[in-house]
Amino acid sequence: MEETRKSKTILEVRNLNVVYETDLETVYAVNGVSFTVKEGETLGLVGETGAGKSTTALSILRLLAENTGKIREGSILFDGEDILEMDNLALQKLRGEDISMIFQDPMTSLNPVLTVGYQIAEVLELHNHDHRSAKEIDQKVEEMLRLVGIPPERKHEYPHQFSGGMKQRVVIAIALACEPRLLIADEPTTALDVTIQAQVIDMMEKLKDRLNTSMILITHDLGIVAEICDQVAIMYAGEIIERGTVYDIFESQRHHPYTEGLFGSIPRLDDETERLKPIKGLMPDPTDLPKGCKFSPRCPQCMDICREKRPPVCRYGSHEISCHLFGQSQEHEGRDEA
Amino acid sequence: MSEQTPLIETRALKKYFKTSKGVLHAVDDINMKIEKGTTLGVVGESGCGKSTLGRVVLGLIGATSGEIYYKGRDTVKFSKREMRGLRKEMQIIFQDPYASLNPRMSVSEIIAEPLRVNGILRNRREIDKRVKELMDTVGIASRLAYAYPHELDGGRRQRVGIARALSVNPEFIVCDEPVSSLDVSIQAQILNLMMDFQKEMGLTYMFITHDLSVVKHISDEIMVMYLGQCVERAPSKELFAQPKHPYTQALLKAVPIPSLKNRGKPREILPGEVTSPIDPQPGCRFAPRCKYAAERCRDPLAFQKISQNHFVACKLYEQAGREGEAQ
User: CB–CB of A227 and B271 under 8 A?
Assistant: First the structure.
């Protein structure tokens, strides 16, 4: 395993609870999520639509919709400092400089009326602590473009002149311009073709290693997770139901039934699957979540206790599963404590 | 395979669009056959012409040239009236269930519409009965009969789209990325459903997708497209076991596999992007990105037979059939 270098924790999310409140209803988007990200490490946040992955990411940057999105409980420590306690000035400094984000859709996250060079320069100007001159900023813009594999001459072009893959490269250049310590990538390659996806992922990996950036990668693609994540957290209905190293998730024999369902649902290129084994039913209504285990209504191994009590977190070394199936027998076993 | 006429066959099928910049070759010289009861998977990346091909085959867009045979009859020459008759036998399921359902019609109205339009059932009670049956078949609760599309989630909407396509008892369905916008657990439900229907009703599918894992799962035969042309065609198993065309090989290597087998190994990455389909140069269109590209790649392409049903359009296989394999 790659846990030899003892790196320090740069982000710690504790018991995060987020709701979206309107006059009509309250959506329980994130319910008690906790995780940590270490320096230089990539955490994969996996789950389906509505699992609360994006809400978690937006909470870290305090970018939730102002009127409806509310963080009810919890703390988000970045380098020991609670982001939830920060004022606007501190947040401005944090965003783009310490933590930056790449959104799913490169088509909509760039401003169509500004040249891409201008948009990269903007971040550098906003966080210009070294008092760089306009010329130096321009050089940095060119350097960033070269870094993401775009000829620097193209800085005078507008987003519509770029293809989807190229636009996503521009977005990555913007996100990495200030060499942030944490990069949050929300489905960065979902909108791209596979060969372009491979190019972008390869590039992100190389840049991440070079700048020693930590990353939270939000995705629904287990293939990408297997390739680049160190840690994995699987989310369902606003909770992390299973968490561990990539080896725990892909090679351990024990899994949360939802994780098993997820793996059973994907057709494999490397395997002959005659028939897929989908998870029955649909995601629960986030305004009216089931009592006890949120997965219980769809779970093939549901027991009585699952409908009543929220499952405990069972630990097997670095591997954590929140499920009653493991709760009774091995609750305190915790074999190789890491 | 067999001697009988295939359900669908195209010969030198072309669809060009005139644009201000020149002629866009969306579908260029496609020859394909789909036997009854089987699935042809059409794979390729955005802009390779796979959706256009699906629509041309159905006659939703007119072909520029070439022939399309449905049960041995050339549908390109069909009159409007003959074409209408054919609509009952050929249907389409669209990618985006959000955009392909009329927001002002209820679920039951949407499913009933093809029945009424094609004059299959006229009696209201009969239509209602058939709609109920169809909703049962695809697994939509009958309480949703009067719901509108915005009230449904993506998976249910796609089920409505499938019910609508099945309502006229078609023989042939073009499925244009039917599961791409769905979550994996729902995607698996829909794929299973479609495979069940194929078995029960003997349906023939043309399954268009960019997702190689999905296409491998559902297809009997696969056609790989690049910039309007078919670059390789083979039975599903053979294509995945022995991809011959450099593009197919690159495509297969680019798919991230959900296991740790390849973790940490350097991956071969296909450089560059798809070039413009407007007024393309003669010869192989993949050549600018191909590591085996050579002078001869500018000459016109011809299909090389690799085995019984395996064809590849690549100069590497020109001499002596299987010699000089691109591995």
Answer: no
pLDDT for the residue A5: 52
Q: When comparing pLDDT for A65 and A12, which is higher?
A: A12
CB contact under 8 A, B191 and A261: no
Do residue B257 and residue A270 have CB atoms under 8 angstroms apart? Answer: yes
Q: pLDDT band at residue A50, thresholds of 50, 70 and 90? A: confident
CA A47/CA B189 separation, integer angstroms: 17
Q: Look at B267 and A202 and tell me if their CB atoms are within 8 Å.
A: yes
B278 DSSP 8-state letter: B
CB-based contact, A209 to chain B, within 8 Å: no
Alpha carbon distances (Å) from B227 to B27, B51, B224, B277, B289: 8, 12, 10, 6, 12
In the predicted model, what is the mean pLDDT of chain A? 90
**Closest residue in A to B141 (Cα–Cα):** A281
CB–CB contacts below 8 A, A to B: 119
Instruction: Compute CA B66 distance to the chain's CA centroid, rounded to the nearest angstrom.
Output: 19
CB contact under 8 A, A194 and B271: no
Hey, which CATH number is domain B8-89+170-244, 3.30.420.40, 3.30.1490.110, 3.40.50.300, 1.10.510.10? 3.40.50.300
What is the rounded CA–CA span in Å between residue B165 and residue A85? 55
| Terminal CA-CA length for chain A | 12
Residue A289 has pLDDT above 90, yes or no: yes
Residues of chain B with pLDDT under 50: 1-2, 320-327
Residue boundaries of the structural domains of chain B: 8-89+170-244
In chain A, whose CA is at the least distance from the CA of B275? Answer: A163
